[in-house]
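dude i think i finally got it to work??
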Amino acid sequence: MPSIDSHAYFFSLPLEIQWWILRYLGIRDQASFLQTCRRTQNIVEPLLYNKISTKVGTQNDTTGLVEFLQRRPQIVAVVRSLVLDEFHPVAYRKLMAIEFPRLESIVLQHDGMPLQIGDEYRRSLNRLVKEQPRLTSMTFSIERDNWAVVKLEADDAVLFRHRKLRRLRMSYIDFSAFGQLDLDYFGHVALKGLFIELCWYTHEALERLASPTMKLQNVLIGHNDQVPFSERLYPRILASAQESLRILDLTWRWKIPLEDQGMDFTKFPNLHFLRVPPIYLLGSNYMDSSALPDLIRTRFPPNLKMLLLENIVPRSIRVMNERGIVFPGYPPPGYTLELTLMPRDYQLIRYLITEKQHVLPRLKYVLVYYTEFMQDATDLYMLAKENGIALGPLTATNPFLDWLDEL
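look at this
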């Protein structure tokens, strides 16, 4: 049986050493140790409740978490991270009505249709929501079975109004109503990462999220359907981050631009990574090879290092066997897949490679879907090597900023 001296020795250790020792225990053992005396409670609670996760359909859901914190208010002071697997419209707002002095991260991911509450009740709950003073990272995603977005109202903007935010990810929601707010409502002056995936919004609503900051470095805006307004407005919305923006991912799968006027990123000198469908960036005029010099000069960021050409999908040129063409996707074992670029896309890639020194001298990578299967890439690979460019397959991975700087 442990001696009293060993207990005294443990309590005499610095708190960081005590935590280091306790991390070797499982959650249940830590909870048992916490109940031995008041001194252990002060030691274990910051470790045990540093990160809190919920489990929908149990007593440990978001409603249960709110009730727990009401019974044990001292826990609020040690919570640094919340991982919530549901958006309960009442419980989440009650949770955000608590000010967490050390909370740094919220990850909320809801699967399915959230519960509905009345407008007046929602507004009354939103009036109680507090800004989290140290919150720097927030993910808010509601993924329904039919991929339809969930509509938020203007007063719901308070759920995202945390002025210390440096990273914000929003998915599957319609925040168009945020366009009714004052331009400086959010005040996200420290925001560095903004990720908008499969959402719906107006020009004004997106401007409210992006315009307050001059520090944006990494932006992702993803759409499977048509973009909600003219593509030419996106550079204007990001204008406050002209000097800071380094990674821009416009994964837009819809093949037809809304206005076909292109986008001007020539005033973004530090934009090194760009993922974009060329028809959105250049307009359909890029189909005319004689127009390419002027289009590239007036559309591309001048110091681009990595170009990912979204929505360029090569076409099949060969039937492999009696079973027909295996496309799109990788062929099964024993099949071969031979692809070719559309003429307009071939001319664009070839021009970027051969005229690199004159148009985009810092360009290092050009990435396209299925390059490993393309038959007409042989000469492009040779040209790319001669001009110091790596031609390769497009993936979903964005680069690390430090690595991007070293290119």
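Residues 157 and 188 are 13 Å apart (CA to CA).
im so relieved honestly
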